[in-house]
Amino acid sequence: MPEARTHTRTIGARLRAHYPALIVTAVFVVIYCLISLVNHSLYRTYALDLGLYTHSAWKYAHFMLPDRSLFLVNRDLLLADHFDLHLALWSPLTYLFGQWTLLIVQIVAVAMGGLGLYRFMMEVHPDRTLATVLMCCGLAFFGVYPVFAFDFHSSVVAAMALPWYLLALRQGRLVRSWWLLAFMVIAKENIGFWMFVVALASLGLPRGVGIKRWHVVMQAAVALAWSTLVISVVMPALSGSGQFQHNHYSVLGRNGGEIIESVFTHPFEVFRAFFMDVQGRHPEGTSIKLEFYFLLLISGGWALFKGWPYLLMCAPVIAQKMLHDNAGMWGCFAHYCVEFSMIVPLAVFGVVITLRQRWLKLAMAWITLLFSIGATHYALEFPIEHASGDHGYHDSIRFYQERHYVRRFDTGKVDRVLATIPKDAAVSALSPLVPHLIARRDLYMFPVVDNAEYIVLLPGDNPYPMQYDEYGQRTDALRKDPAWRVELDDPEIIIFQKN
């Protein structure tokens, strides 16, 4: 018993020593919940991607392999679309948290990422105030908040393990570093390419005890081999087309050979594509790219030019963003900036600790945090890619405005109606309803119907992937179809049941 009391006091003393960091983390968790959980309760999460991924996790938990039938007339395994093993990893939690599972996982992961920044900094330079302030730079980073406004992605969870991986390398914890590397690369098929660069770049960081260099090189090689094998062999084998589904880099080429050729024969054109919309894919394409770089620089990205290992870690993420065919990846939208939140604060830290006087270190850290908060406020209010329209973005992300907490329909009534649908029934539902109906074997995003016994719609809501005209036509056709009968016809929700 005395030993147990001593152990308890030791834990209590450690918690008290890091009390400010824990309090700050708790405050950010509350903010993340106000965005993510509120959005879900108000039907601002969608079939793609939260509904698809939570339904897949539920299927794994019930020993079924998820496929792509939820959003395609296609029975290929979901692993052919994205090779995401995290969904299986978190699947047991669906028994506890149901439809909320992945949102909770993501919130906890980002909080742990912030604490990872804090632990790494304390390992290198044990100044609690400095580490806490720069941890805030990561948790307040402009790329974090769109993550919670737009569903769930396993790549976010993987990115949050980066500071813990770097800490394990510095502390000489070989087994832990291998586990963390595995945890990261299994989240998505392309993360191994990023970790290949991260592992090699880490050799340029202050090493502490450090893992032997050849171990780190081996980890880099394994990460590269994993992604290469998964993308070139495993995913095509799982796909009915026999091909990898996500080659969206036409500015480089259609395959590895063409990419290498483009880099060596047209380097200037490739370089321009990092900063300009060379293919004219968006009316404000170049401005969106430059806006991102501006926000990155004032959020602490300037420090990347003082710490080449961190700049190298960012390079694959920037290339993945800026060379993609989809202009939606270029700016500060969705989850395409989140990796920087774990790299940039470490780069700033690397510069700050070289200053001789503590007050200068703290002043630079506080200034960086203030600029980071300013960049985040800009991203929540004025991004160029949303200047031409609202698109629901503002309602989803501005947690400090009243409009974030209201919906045009009675969400409580919708909750009660959805609860009346039998748990074993196959359902086709409008996209915002799908994440709330995940606990069943067969679930589809309308207009995919397949073997559905119920079709559930929200009149007047965003009909993605349909246009409003098509949505109205399909709804009218169902009313006239003798195979279906109207079970509930309410101004806020409609249910069709198969005859």
Overview of the molecule:
By secondary structure, this protein is mostly helical. The protein has a domain at 411-498. The chain is built from 22 helices and five strands. The chain has helices spanning 2-17, 19-41, 47-61, 86-90, 94-97, 101-124, 128-139, 145-149, 154-159, 162-171, 174-185, 191-202, 213-238, 256-265, 267-273, 285-298, 308-322, 340-352, 358-381, 393-397, 411-418, 468-480; strands spanning 427-429, 443-445, 454-457, 484-489, 494-498. The protein has a five-stranded mixed β-sheet with strand order 2-1-3-5-4, covered by helices on one side. Helix 17 (308-322) packs antiparallel against helix 18 (340-352). The longest helix has 26 residues, at 213-238.
Attribute tags:
499 residues; mainly alpha; 22 helices; 5 strands
Number of DSSP-assigned strands? 5
Derived from helix and strand composition plus strand pairing, the structural class reads: mainly alpha
Characterize the largest beta sheet: strand count, sense, and whether it forms a barrel: 5 strands, mixed
- Number of continuous helical runs: 22
Short description:
With 499 residues, this protein is mainly alpha-helical.
Mind sketching the topology for me?
Elements (H helix, E strand, L loop, with lengths): L1 H16 L1 H23 L5 H15 L24 H5 L3 H4 L3 H24 L3 H12 L5 H5 L4 H6 L2 H10 L2 H12 L5 H12 L10 H26 L17 H10 L1 H7 L11 H14 L9 H15 L17 H13 L5 H24 L11 H5 L13 H8 L8 E3 L13 E3 L8 E4 L10 H13 L3 E6 L4 E5 L1
Parallel strand pairs: 1-2, 1-3
Antiparallel strand pairs: 3-5, 4-5
